[in-house]
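Anyone? Bumping this.
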Amino acid sequence: MAGRRNRNRKKEEYFFDYTLLFIVLFLLGFGLVMLYSTSSYEAALDYGDSAYYLKKQLLSTALGIGCMIFVASRDYHVWEKFAVLGYIVAVVMILMVLSPLGHEVKGARRWLRVGPLSLQPAEIAKLAMILFLAVLVCKMGKGIRTWKGFGLAVGSAIPICLLIWQVTNNLSSAIIIGGIAVLMVFVAAPDYKRFIGLAAIVCAVAALAVFLIVNNAKAQSEAAAADGITQAEEGIQSDAGFRGDRIIAWLDPEKYASDEGFQTLQALYAIGSGNIFGKGLGRSMQKLGFLPEAQNDMIFSIICEELGLFGALSIMLLFIILIWRFMVIANNASDLFGALLVVGVLGHIAIQVILNIAVVTNTIPNTGISLPFISYGGTSILFLLSEIGLVLSVSKGIRLNDVG
Amino acid sequence: MRGYKTYNRKKIVVVFICCTLAMTGLGGRLAYLMIYQGEYYTKLAEELHERERSIKAARGKIIDSTGAVLATNRTVCTISVIHSQIEKPEEVISMLVKELGVSEETARKKVEKVSSIEKIKSNVSKETGDIIREYNLAGVKVDEDYKRYYPYDDLASKVLGFTGSDNQGIIGLEVKYEDYLKGEDGIIYTVTDARGVEIDKEGENRKEPIAGNDLYISMDLNIQFYATQLCEQVMEAKEADAVSMLVMNPKNGEILAMVNVPEFHLNDPFTLLTEGEATQDALNRMWRNGVINDTYEPGSTFKIITATAALEAGVVTTEDTFSCPGFIIVEDRKIRCHKTNGHGGENFIQATMNSCNPVFVDVGLRLGVDRYYSYFEQFGLLEKTGVDLPGEAGTIMHKKENMGLVELATVSFGQSFQITPIQLATTVSSIVNGGNRITPHFGVEARDVYGNIVETFKYPVKKGIVSKETSETMRMILEQVVANGGGQKAAIEGFSIGGKTATSQTLPRGSGKYISSFIGFYPAEDPDVLALVVINNPKGIYYGGQIAAPVVKTLFENILPYLQKIDYTK
């Protein structure tokens, strides 16, 4: 099969999505610059090396680019047979977090560590999920139109989601994987009603949860007030656990400035003080320890502070162009498998960008989601670049006279 | 294109559109945060990043009429700790205990307190500050600032006053002229990281301090010195409790010297001169300026006022003759003269020279309560003098409606009511200067640090409280008192000096405690300088004419040539 395709391509105009490649490379370069700007002060204080984070990220990026080139140069159909294996590997790796190989960073056990290498299984799971679902949906054919097929496709994501949520206590990754799965099934199936219904249920559940948590917190604070204890003294200690606390802090970060609302509020300070053109590259104040771990999930707020609304919107525009390229490639992919792979990657990146910016701007409750290509994180960059490699590989399969 | 349908493409477009919409929405949210709420968050962020440190303004100097600096500033240090920068808390604590003498408990509490900056001690000497600096401990800050310093230490201590830990005036001129002296503190705004470490590249924003204005006062250092010496001598010789002296210019109210021995140490004002616990009460007593804060029965010096009132009212003339049998009966009281066998026949001038009580009772009764009281008021005795020092005491006088003839009789020779020494000196000044009630004062002008006059102080003068004729008569009578009467011990050959002595028993009567005083002025014809000395509870001979008059004599002997009242070319 692959052989025939290659022969065909030789006769056709050769296509390669340079726009996509250059946007990704630009984002990588920009991300490294911002990472250095954001982390150098704290890195110099904590590790005596201002380039500590930059060096690690550079290594992952180089490795990632290697992976990207490797994946891009191969026909993406090669990966079909690894779908089930990938799924199983992802599940095993998530479970291995519980083993002695599991590694804890700041109270969250989400990493696997072998020697100097550390890996976040959730990032592997995302790629595995994309591959597995693409293969599954293609195998089903028209079966996806039935309730059974729909249930099977969406259901295949549930074990991984639950594992990531419960084992690594990482709800945001679970949501992202669930989102990717739903998005892929949405594209694969002709139906709209089911998805609108699903969206309605999700919204309703989320609204109800927020409502209950807020009510509960109110009742608690009233009870505490009756006991003569203020919320500020006691911090927030609702029954809903730290997620509930985050929801309460989301609604009024200034009230909880000293605990749950702290990071969000610091991010808002950074964003708000950026104004239109920002303070200039490297001139962020909030990165000087005020916004802890700014190089991780909150890096976008430092971009806002240093480069202003102008810089922030430019980055968002780049991501939109990136997504647009994904759409173009998916729409012109030579088969459904390729298209679904691209849609999966699109979903992965789009969901993370949107959720990350939404968190940073306190549009949704705080949850740890990194900004693709820019946030610090080795596993993330490695797998994102592999996914880009996959998309580039799909783009190579496009025959130019098909492009509309 | 196996299994690849149009609806797939459509749905991909839908996904893209949804993503774009979501991004657009977030872009809008960003614009809202960065433009609409930008100012709010920028302000909050700046408050978070900025630290303020104040720079003390140099307090204005106090400078006397000869140009001598009586109060100035010395560099001292303030020691603070910055919690987030401390690396070795134990070393910091033990250093603070060792160098600053604070208790370990206090030091620990401050070092361990999570705050941006915690002040440990201010007014630490520069030497100690330098030593602490050499420890080079992270998180310990040594800030230099100013401390008040008084070069002459105990000279005019109760007049100048001193300042507190924040360089604010506490007593004396320091508090009265606080607004002129204090200046305006500057502020250093520094930008720091979350640990409180200053960010050098951000630079610092400074609001420069504005130094306080210098206060120029009418005090003459040399006269003050000499008067202090005389007071100390007489206090020692007569084992007195306290001796006060006031030297002023009766024409304009400028005070040249104001002494209250024992004086205290301005550079160490919180240590008592005597043994005992330094309670606030004890300190307040030590800081009291007797000339202004305390009242006393003036005694015979007050006969000047009675005589002036009587002459002004025309109830007596200098030629009127009296006969003193050694007592006078007023209603049911027998008031004795100090000369128990009586002065016999005498005219009014002689009666004043003799300080004859019955004559002054007679003259007082001739005036009557109403008139006497109205002169008392006219001379300004019911009001405060308005001297530019804090805490002036008011006159303690009978209410007019409660004043019977006995009260009138005793008031006539200076008893049964109380005034401050400054009140007596001011009233006598006003009588002998031609009838202008002047305001006694120290403050002449305030100049800024570059020497430009900021303000020349003006003081109210009430003209015509007595006629010029009466004023002249009084000068003549008082000159006679010194030349031939009870004030002879103040006489200096070749100098025309006017004056009046007084000896009054303190309350309760019969305690054996006396206050002896003398008020004198020169030249008698047109006085330029007036001095009042008040000796509190002298032992042995206690007559004002015997012990107080010589003090003023010695003072005049020495300061009159100094004040260039003598033309040596003649």
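Late reply, but here is one note on the structure posted above: Chain B touches chain A through 40 residues (CB under 8 Å).
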